[in-house]
Write a structure and sequence with these properties.
Length: about 475
């Protein structure tokens, strides 16, 4: 990790920085909302626009698909043109695309709007995180600020179905997109006063070929994973995955040759950087898969309405908030790797509860998911802090984008792998609510085993990281 000087340790953030964090929490919350806001809006949207089954999937997936594809490029763009400037451009673009989506007259145009939202979202995610890195120089405060950042995104995902359902019920399905407009206006007004500008004055021109290669490497992988989640394993996902990996190899080789690479691949030689990314990937695989299964369990097995099911997901979100904000404080006394390992180990208790939950036991299931979210809170705060902290200041946007790309892939892999495993078990049991519960049990047990390996990785690969601020 970067060596932090004693003067940097003593430079604590003031009221302006904390107020700026509050401002940055707004677009972060918005990005989380837009991941899940269509869950309850979809019935009225389908009734109005009458999309085909394939178009419906694209309406749901285009947003996350294009966020993942453009994150690395946009993170580097922010380092070059200025992170505050990119945040303002992204906020304006996100608001415009949201209005476009709200009044889209056809399924095709709504898919286009969702794709544009994803591209705009890819400018917001690394901008917010890299600005936090620049504003909070004190390593202890930075870890807490990143914990708040991670929690706001997860809170947005948890609140998305409820917010979308309420707006669609009171107005029409397009109203769910319009909540982006006032948030974008607040960001545009508040950014000049509360947020600093930071750009790499020595940065060279953006390598367009590298940007195209990063897109061509990530998009096939994400698409393959989502296709497995929707239709199960097949030849096409394997070919897409191979294509993505092949282009990824070409991308890495090009970065090694460039004097100003799009992504500084030499950072992967830093053990803390690589290990933290691996832990984030493993943790998000478990969380992504179980979150998908638990929401289905509450509605399909427990027969709760989507809004009530969303409210049941509130306590786990509070558990994540508690872990994300307290883990950095605990890591001032104990090594961050140990803190992450212990919380991941505790979260395996949650996977165990989900592996044992049956019909009529929603309290057991939700409690189990609360433990799962507890582990996520700790690794999201401390792991992301390690990734951003390992990069030099002029590359923090690129590092932030890499962290978010890995987390996006983790969620996608979790939904695909654990979701497909649960479906296979359920179909083998004849289908129905009882068989779905068996599938959730098996998938949760597998997810818990994978996360336990992540806990061991924390102990082995991150034990050399000292407590925060030392």
């Amino acid at each position: 990790m970067n060596i932090v000087s004693v003067s940097e340790h003593q430079e604590t953030a003031g009221a302006r920085q904390w107020a700026g964090l509050g401002l940055l929490a707004l677009p972060t919350l918005l990005l989380g909302l837009d991941v899940t806001v269509l869950y309850l809006v979809l019935p009225s949207l389908v009734s109005d626009l009458e999309p085909s089954a394939t178009q419906t999937l694209w309406i749901l997936d285009a947003y996350g698909f294009f966020i993942a594809g453009f994150l690395i490029t946009m993170g580097t763009v922010g380092d070059r043109i200025g992170r505050r400037r990119l945040l303002k451009i992204g906020a304006l673009a996100f608001a415009a695309a949201s209005v476009f989506a709200a009044f889209a007259p056809s399924a095709e145009l709504l898919i286009l709007a969702r794709a544009l939202l994803g591209i705009a979202g890819a400018t917001l995610m690394p901008s917010t995180l890299s600005l936090i890195s620049a504003m909070f120089v004190n390593v202890r405060q930075r870890a807490v600020a990143i914990g708040v950042w991670a929690t706001m995104f997860a809170f947005g995902m948890a609140a998305g179905p409820i917010v979308g359902g309420l707006l669609a019920d009171q107005f029409w399905w397009g109203a769910a997109f319009l909540i982006a407009v006032p948030i974008a206006l607040l960001v545009l007004v508040g950014a000049p006063a509360l947020l600093p500008e930071f750009a790499d004055s020595s940065a060279q021109r953006l390598d367009v070929i590298s940007g195209a290669l990063s897109l061509a490497a990530i998009l096939p992988v994400v698409y393959a994973v989502k296709e497995v989640a929707a239709y199960g394993p097949g030849v096409r996902p394997v070919l897409l995955l191979a294509l993505g990996i092949g282009v990824g190899v070409v991308f890495v080789r090009r970065q090694r040759r460039l004097t100003a690479p799009l992504l500084d691949v030499t950072l992967f030689s830093e053990r803390a950087y690589s290990a933290a990314l691996a832990v984030l990937l493993i943790g998000l695989v478990g969380v992504g898969g179980t979150m998908y299964l638990v929401t289905q369990y509450l509605q399909f097995v427990e027969e709760l309405t989507p809004i009530v099911a969303g409210l049941w997901m509130g306590p786990p979100a509070l558990a994540m908030f508690a872990a994300a904000t307290t883990a950095p404080i605990i890591a001032r006394r104990f090594r961050p790797g140990v803190v992450m390992a212990l919380t991941l180990a505790i979260s395996t208790l949650g996977y165990g509860l989900l592996a044992a939950a049956g019909p009529g036991q929603k309290v057991v299931g939700v409690t189990g998911f609360g433990f799962v979210y507890l582990g996520l809170g700790a690794i999201a705060a401390l792991g992301t802090d390690m990734v951003v902290g390992a990069a030099p200041a002029n590359k923090s946007g690129s590092a932030a984008a890499m962290s978010e790309t890995v987390q996006e892939l983790g969620v996608a892999f979790g939904v695909a792998v654990l979701g497909s495993l649960a479906t296979a078990v359920a179909l083998g049991g004849g289908g129905g609510a009882g068989a779905f519960t068996d599938g959730m049990n098996v998938a949760s047990a597998v997810g818990g085993a994978v996360v336990f390996l992540g806990a061991l990785l924390c102990v082995v690969a991150l034990r050399h990281i000292p407590p925060l601020g030392r």
